[in-house]
Amino acid sequence: MSASWQHCASCAQEIPETDTHARCPRCQGLLEVRHPAPATTGAALRALFDDRRGGANHRGPYSSGVWRFRELVLPTAADCILTYPEGNTPLLARPAVSAWAGARELLLKHEGHNPTGSFKDRGMTVGVTQARRIGATAVACASTGNTGASLAAYAALAGLPALVIVPKGKVAVGKLAQALAYGARTLVMRGNFDRCLELVDAASERLGVYLLNSINPFRLEGQKTIVFELLQQLDWEPPDWIVVPAGNLGNTAAFGKALGEARALELISRLPRLAAVQAAGAAPFAASFREGFARRHRVEPHTVATAINIGNPASYDRAVRAIRETDGVVTAVSDDEILEAKAVVDAAGIGCEPASAASVAGVRQLIRDGTIGTTDRIVAVLTGHILKDPMTVTFYHQEREPPPPRANRPVEIEPTLSEIERELRACLTT
Ligand SMILES: *Cc1c(COP(=O)(O)O)cnc(C)c1O
Ligand SMILES: [Zn+2]
Predict the structure, then answer these.
(1) Among the four 93, 167, 302, 371, which has the fewest Cβ within 10 Å?
(2) Domain that holds residue 111
(3) Domain-located, residue 202
(4) What's the pLDDT at 56?
(5) Residue among 323, 178, 192, 171 at smallest CA distance from 260
(6) CATH code at 304?
(7) Residue 36, in any domain of the structure
(8) What's the pLDDT score for residue 161?
C-alpha cells in the first residue's frame, strides 16, 4: 500500500508521512494528513467497515472503533498499531434529555466510554502509534486534563516516557489523578492552558520530544472516527446535525474533515451540519463566527467546564473550514446552562463531565432560536465521563447556596428505623 503524506494548510508544502515535526518545518503552519484513495468507495467500503464490526474481530486492531476505519485513519500503520482497543462507544436515546432540549430525536454519542474516559483516546492511539513509527524517544503534551490522562496511559502502553503540562488549579481531580497514576512526568504550571501549550510547543521542537497535542495532525485522524462510528451506528443514514463541545477546536476540525471524506467516498449521500458549542466565558470561536470569521479572537478564559477553558484555540483555521464546509454554526452557552444540562444528563443515568454537557445545552439553545428544527435528527457528543470531575458534582448537589433547581441534597438522619421509614415514605410519594 502506498504511503500517506502531510500537507501544510498555510504554504502547501508536502512532507512525508513519517516526518517527525508536529508542524510544517518551512512555515510552522498546521499540517494535515492525506491518504491515498482507498481501493473501494460507497457500498463496498461501508461493507468492509461493517464486516470488521461483526463477530470475528473480538481481538486485534479491528476490534477498535478507530482502527476498524484504518483506510481513512492511517492505512500503512498495519503492524505497529498500539490500541487498547478504544472507541465502540454507545449512541444513547434518553427521552428525558430529548424533552429537556426540546428535540424529537436527540441521540447522545458517549465518548466517556473510552478507556481513559474521554474521546482523547481515539486521537492518542493514532498519535502514539505514529510516535513509535517515527522512533520518538519521548512524548509530551499540554493539557486541560484529558489529553494528559490519555497520553499518560498510551505512553505506558508503548513503554515511552511522557511529559504532561497542566495549568495549576484548572484541572479536574480525576484527570490529574490519572496522569499521575499512569506514570507521566506531570508539571503543574502557574498559568492558563494556552500558555502551557505555547511552552510545550516550543520546548518539544528544541528537545526533540514528539508533541501530541491536537495540533498534531495524526490525533485528528483518530478523532475523525467519532463521526465514522456514529454514521455506522445509524446504518450510514446521516443525522441533520452533529453537535460538539468546542475548546481547542481539534474535534471540530476533525469532524469537518471526517464529514468531507465520508461524502467524497460516498459513505453518505448528504452532509450533516456541524454545531460547535463553547462556554460563554471561553468563546473566542463563537465571537469570530458572529462576525463571519472576519478575525480571530483571543480571550482570558473562565468557565466551570475546564476541558473547554481555552482562550486561543490552536485549530482555529481548520475549524473555520469545518464550519464553512458543513454549513455549520458556532454558539456559546453559560456555565449555568451547562450545569443544568449536565444535571439532566446525569439524572437520566448517563452522566458526563461539565464540558460534555455544553453540547446538550447547545442543542436546547439552537432549537429555541430556530436554528435547529424540532423534528431534526440530532447527534450530540458527550466528550467525557462523569467521574472526571466529581468536585463539580459535589458542589452542585451538596454545597451550592442557594441550591440550584436540580440539586439532589443528601439527607442526614439519626440511626433510627423511624427516620428511615419517614424518608422512604417521602421517597415513594414524590
Ligand atoms: C478536549 C475536550 C474537549 C474539547 O475538545 P477540543 O478538540 O479541544 O475542542 C471537550 N470536552 C472534553 C471532555 C475534552 O476532554
Ligand atoms: Zn508550511
Answers:
(1) 93
(2) 91-117+219-392
(3) no
(4) 63
(5) 323
(6) 3.40.50.1100
(7) no
(8) 97
Q: What is the DSSP code string of 35-89? A: -PPPS--HHHHHHHHHHHHSTT-SSSGGGSTTGGGGGGT-GGGGGG---S-----
> Position of cell 452557552?
333
Pairing status of strand 210-211 against strand 139-142: parallel
Q: Summarize the confidence of residues 198-220 as an average pLDDT.
A: 92
**Would you state the torsion angle of the CA atoms of residues 310, 353, 120, 227, taken in this order, to the nearest 10 degrees?**
-100
In whole numbers, what is the pLDDT of the chain averaged over residues?
96
Considering every ligand atom shown, identify the ligand nearest to the alpha carbon of residue 23 and give its number. Answer: 2
Q: Which atom of ligand 1 is nearest to the CA of 119?
A: 15
Which of 333, 300, 303, 313 has the alpha carbon at shortest distance from 172? 303
56 CA distance to ligand 1 centroid (A)?
Answer: 33
Ligand 1 interacting residues, C-beta cut-off 6 A? 118, 120, 146, 214, 245-252, 307-308, 353, 355-356, 383-384
CA–centroid distance, 378 to ligand 2, in Å, is 37
**Which of 30, 111, 119, 359 has the most ligand 1 atoms within 8 A of CB, as the residue to mutate?**
119
Name which residue sits closest to atom 8 of ligand 1, judged by CA. Answer: 248
Rounded to an integer, the average pLDDT of 118-124 is: 98
- Ligand nearest to the backbone CA of 7: 2
Q: For residue 214, give the nearest of 161, 255, 274, 158 by alpha carbon.
A: 255
What is the residue with the minimal CA distance to atom 2 of ligand 1?
307
